[in-house]
């Protein structure tokens, strides 16, 4: 009954450091997404994937890279962290074509602080 | 204009009360709409889907007004456990984009 699992749950980075956030889903979903949530703002899409080996830019992709080498995993990388990337990051996956079904099942989030 | 706008609240209501709030959207071509619930420091979870004029699930009723481009969520007989932030989500037709409102916070007090 895992659903969508995100690791790590918390992280503090220094400016300029790099890190990778891992998202794993066990529901055989085709579509996977990375969002960031900031106070007073709705979730904003960073990158998404419509299947294994594919990735695409979302609304706020700058400063992030992604990879989907396996269907069940979607990785989000920060090459050189900046304080503006302090946020809560959510991964989601869905079975339906975006726009025709719910936004998907979300992971529990990663709270990232960049100092 | 933001694509999805919500009254941030907070709405503070006593147990047993009815509370309702709206979400306005800008894309008139949008066909489907969703309400998600997000508890403090937790992930969003799907509460209701709205594909036509409305939907009802127990104490929760969602209504769609296409002419005025808004959806509403009504909670009857509020419970303490209904305290949460409610997110309005509107997909963009023929696109992978989902627009999220910033959320409406509801606090139910004993």
Describe the structure using short key phrases.
heterodimer; A: about 120 residues; mainly beta; seven-stranded mixed β-sheet; four-stranded antiparallel β-sheet; about 50% strand; B: about 110 residues; six-stranded mixed β-sheet; five-stranded antiparallel β-sheet; about 55% strand
Q: Largest interface: which pair?
A: A-B, 24 and 27 residues
Main sheet properties of chain A: 7 strands, mixed
Shape of chain B: globular
Helix and strand content put the structural class of chain A at mainly beta
Give the radius of gyration of chain B.
13 Å
Specify the number of helices of chain B.
0
DSSP strand tally of chain B: 11
Q: Which percent bin holds the helix content of chain B?
A: under 10%
Order of helices and strands of chain B: EEEEEEEEEEE
User: Mean pLDDT of chain A, as a whole number?
Assistant: 92
Q: Which structural class do the helices and strands of chain B define?
A: mainly beta
Q: Enumerate how many helices of chain A there are, as a single number.
A: 0
Regions with little confidence, pLDDT below 50 for 5+ residues of chain B: none
Globular, elongated, flat, extended or rod-shaped: what is the shape of chain A?
Answer: globular
* Succession of helices and strands of chain A: EEEEEEEEEEE
% residues in beta strands of chain A? over 45%
State the distance separating the first and last CA atoms of chain A: 35 Å
Describe the structure.
- Helix content of chain A is about 0%, strand content about 50%.
- Chain A has no helices and eleven strands.
- In chain A, strands 2, 4, 5, 6, 9, 10 and 11 form a seven-stranded mixed sheet that branches. In chain A, strands 1-3-8-7 form a four-stranded antiparallel sheet, with no helix packed on it.
- Chain A is globular and about 35 Å long.
- The termini of chain A are far apart.
- By secondary structure, chain B is mainly β.
- In chain B, the strands form two sheets. In chain B, strands 2, 4, 5, 9, 10 and 11 form a six-stranded mixed sheet that branches.
- In chain B, a hairpin with a 6-residue loop joins strand 9 and strand 10.
């Amino acid at each position: 009954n895992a659903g969508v699992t995100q690791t790590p749950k918390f992280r503090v980075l220094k400016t300029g450091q790099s890190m990778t956030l891992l998202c794993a889903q066990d529901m055989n979903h085709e579509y996977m997404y990375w969002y960031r949530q900031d106070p007073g703002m709705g979730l904003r899409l960073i990158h998404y994937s419509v299947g294994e080996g594919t990735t695409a830019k979302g609304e706020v992709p700058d400063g992030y890279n992604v990879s989907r080498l396996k269907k069940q995993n979607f990785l989000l990388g920060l090459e050189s962290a900046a304080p503006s990337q302090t946020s809560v990051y959510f991964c989601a996956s869905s079975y339906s074509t975006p726009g025709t079904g719910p936004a998907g099942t979300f992971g529990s989030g990663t709270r990232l602080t960049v100092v | 204009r933001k694509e999805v706008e919500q009254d941030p609240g907070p709405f503070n209501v006593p147990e047993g009360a009815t509370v309702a709030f709206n979400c306005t959207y800008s894309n008139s071509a949008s066909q489907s709409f969703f309400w998600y619930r997000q508890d403090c420091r937790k992930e969003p979870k799907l509460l209701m889907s709205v594909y036509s004029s409305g939907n009802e699930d127990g104490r929760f009723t969602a209504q769609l007004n296409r002419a005025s481009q808004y959806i509403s969520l009504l909670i009857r007989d509020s419970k303490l456990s209904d305290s949460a932030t409610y997110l309005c989500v509107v997909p963009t037709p023929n696109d992978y984009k989902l627009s999220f409102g910033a959320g409406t916070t509801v606090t139910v007090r004993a």
